[in-house]
Design goal:
Blueprint: E1 4-9, H1 17-33, E2 38-43, H2 45-49, H3 56-73, E3 81-84, H4 90-98, H5 104-108, H6 111-119, H7 128-131, H8 133-143, E4 148-150, H9 156-173, E5 181-183, H10 216-224, H11 245-253, H12 256-262, H13 269-278, H14 283-309, H15 312-340, H16 350-360
Parallel strand pairs: 1-2, 2-3, 4-5
Helix pairs in contact: 3-14, 4-8, 4-15, 8-9, 10-14, 11-14
The structure holds adenosine-5'-triphosphate and magnesium ion (MG).
């Protein structure tokens, strides 16, 4: 079976380094591996509207920001099909049919939705659209017959939900949909990168991000004020690694080459950690190293973004063409779905003949 990727991001802000290590970097590697027949990268504006219904301009403006971040990171429109979700109405139609296969209590059990409801203070009044977005996500994934979904750990419950919908659909209506697999980052620190404030997840909605397009001075300021071990007061004190965001970031970003370039007195992260836990290594030195690491990762991305910013019409065309192509694929799947559900009354003569036989025999 051919391997197909579907993944994406909500246009609720510029993309940040959590997106980068959690999903974006991997997408570019997968794209360049040549192992995938088709790759669809979706800007999920319809999903973003489920909790931003009163900020449509925010969603509208961030579509271009996300597209620029994609191209800056190395997504190549020749190899990866970029699309805007709302402009593929087939996805909405699929969502509507899948809704019949999911119960309210099943949605209520979704841990990611639960924590997102809490984060947005939606407890008293959850928009129905937001509550059902895991179903819409199942439509996105299955519309492109995706086999592989490279995302961060917070998406695990969404993939579980999608698999259940696929199994249920295929059992009730016959084999039609493809069951996708999640592809999580190999590096544990990248599964869910914490925010610069030490909170469990870097997230646009929490304002604790280092953005991919961030200016060098701003990056430095954020890194230098990051959360470490509160009990590590004097340099001679032994430091804790657990819950120490600076070290989590080093786990996520640093390589041997970074040590050679910026901190040659240590050969690897293991050695630096060992010194920190033993005592005698100050936070400032570690943060300065992390700053160098992040700066060197983000500089080429920021420069490429500046180039694409000069040619917005090109980015527009990439999105327009990509969306058009995606629509063709989604329309085929929707036709398959409607055929399996026997709601394709006008596609063939079958239904007409059934009715004629019923009334004329
Ligand atoms: P929002 O706050 O609007 O939900 P977000 O920052 O959570 O935004 P999404 O667009 O929801 O970003 O997520 C896009 C992709 O990035 C998903 O695959 C998600 O798993 C991944 N991702 C988001 N935040 C992180 C993070 N902190 N660490 C690892 N992966 C992440
Ligand atoms: Mg999110």
């Amino acid at each position: 079976m051919s391997k197909i990727i579907l993944t994406g991001d909500r246009p609720t802000g510029k993309l940040h380094v959590g997106h980068y290590v959690g999903s974006l970097k991997r997408r570019v590697e997968l794209q360049n591996s040549g192992d995938y027949e088709k790759i669809f990268i979706m800007i999920a504006d319809a999903q973003a509207l489920t909790d931003n219904s009163d900020h449509p301009e925010k969603v509208r403006n961030n579509i271009m920001e996300v597209a620029l971040d994609y191209l800056a990171c190395g997504l190549d429109p020749e190899k990866s099909n970029l699309l805007i979700q709302s402009q593929v109405p087939e996805l909405t139609e699929l969502t509507f049919y899948y809704m019949n296969l999911v119960t309210v209590s099943r949605l209520q059990r979704n841990p990611t939705v639960k924590s997102e409801i809490q984060m947005r203070n939606f407890e008293a009044s959850i928009p129905v659209g937001f509550f059902t977005y895991p179903i819409s996500q199942a439509a996105d994934i299955t519309a492109f017959k995706a086999t592989t979904v490279p995302v961060g750990e917070d998406q695990l419950p969404m993939l579980e939900q999608t698999k259940e919908i696929v199994r249920k659909f295929n059992a009730v209506y016959g084999d039609t949909l493809v069951e996708p697999d999640i592809l999580l980052p190999d590096n544990k620190a990248c599964l869910r990168l914490p925010g610069t404030d030490g909170k469990a997840k870097m997230s646009k909605s929490l304002g604790n991000c280092i953005y991919l397009s961030e200016e060098p001075e701003e990056i430095k300021k954020k890194v230098m004020s990051m959360f470490t071990d509160p009990d590590h007061i004097k340099i001679t004190d032994s430091g804790k690694l657990e819950g120490n965001t600076v070290f989590t970031y080093l786990d996520a970003f640093s390589t041997k080459e970074h040590f050679e370039a910026f901190l040659p007195e240590y050969s690897c992260l293991g050695e630096l950690k060992e010194h920190y836990t033993r005592g005698g290594l100050g936070d400032v030195k570690v943060k300065k190293f992390l700053n160098n690491v992040i700066q060197s990762e983000l500089e080429p991305i920021r420069n490429r973004r500046c180039e694409y910013q000069k040619n917005i019409s090109y980015v527009y065309e990439v999105l327009r063409k990509g969306t058009e192509k995606a629509r063709e694929v989604a329309a085929c799947t929707l036709a398959d779905v409607k055929k399996s559900m026997k709601i394709n009354y006008f596609d063939t003569n079958e239904w007409l003949e059934e009715q004629i036989n019923k009334y004329h025999s």
